[in-house]
Design a protein that fits this description.
13 helices, MetI-like fold, mainly alpha, single chain
Length: 281
């Protein structure tokens, strides 16, 4: 067990403890940290960019996560049907999610190119003039939201596993009782896959709170700070401004926010999550 324990202490526990200590200090990595108490927190709540990064991140979360969940579930329902080349479509849907990070960002950078991009080319058939997606503050965030749908194949695969776990006799009983497709889905299928939906929702929200690669690779905060995500703000303060204490404070605020939002989702999930063991938990 010692290799794992040593790795955990050095690469996980120590950085967490160090960041907590640095959040109460003024530290620029060159000079020794100077304890400043709650000054970083006071300054943070007076920082305009702090609130702007929160709003950008929340807007991204509130739009991207619900649409991604909906599309993932719809594609999972479609692929769960007995259609020709089912395996091919399942693989084709999942394959894009294997390309992530910088590669994905650079690919979409060309897709949204205002002169030769495929997206503007498609819009031209509807008489829409070319849009400068990443140079216009009204469209930059929307471009990143559209990019987030690239990886919905992973969520689709998890929903597909949940759908295939729904007992066939329950679906058959609903059909015999005269229930249509919508009633069968809403009263039988969705309750059975509701724990999967809860898992996808929590993971999606947490990942949306940590968006960084797209903002750093393509927009660098965007025109007029329109894609100034929270984690990108942490990066700028830590590795551009060399304010590691201030960035550590922001990181701990993010941790608290994730914990609060996750707790809220878990508490409200009792209304729609069904467990076979008996009711909601």
């Amino acid at each position: 067990m010692s290799p794992w324990i040593i790795g955990f202490l050095i690469f996980a526990l120590y950085p967490v403890g160090a960041s907590l200590y640095y959040s109460f200090t003024d530290y620029d990595i060159i000079n020794p940290p100077v304890f400043v108490g709650l000054n970083n927190f006071k300054e943070l709540f007076q920082d305009e960019q702090f609130y702007n990064s929160i709003m950008v991140t929340l807007k991204y979360t509130l739009i991207s996560v619900p649409i991604t969940l909906f599309l993932s579930l719809m594609f999972a329902i479609l692929i769960n049907q007995k259609i020709p080349f089912n395996g091919f479509f399942r693989t084709a849907m999942y394959f894009p999610s294997m390309i992530s990070g910088v590669s994905m960002a650079l690919l979409w950078f060309w897709v949204f190119n205002p002169q030769a991009g495929l997206f503007n080319y498609g819009l031209s058939f509807f008489g829409i003039d070319p849009i400068h997606w990443f140079l216009d503050e009204n469209y930059a965030l929307w471009a990143l939201i559209i990019m987030s749908f690239w990886g919905l194949g992973a969520g689709m695969l998890i929903f597909l596993a949940g759908l295939q776990g729904v007992p066939a006799h329950l679906l058959e009983a609903a059909r015999l009782d005269g229930a249509g497709r919508w009633k069968t889905f809403w009263n039988v299928t969705f309750p059975m896959i509701s724990p999967v939906f809860l898992f996808q929702l929590i993971i999606g929200v947490i990942e949306s709170f940590q968006v960084f690669t797209q903002a750093y690779t393509i927009t660098r905060g965007g025109p007029n700070y329109s894609t100034w995500f929270y984690v990108y703000n942490i990066y700028i303060n830590a590795f551009k401004n060399f304010r590691y204490g201030y960035a550590s404070t922001m990181a701990w605020i993010l941790l608290v926010a994730v914990l609060v939002v996750t707790y809220f989702i878990m508490r409200t999930s009792k209304r729609y999550v069904y467990y076979e063991g008996g009711g909601s938990k």
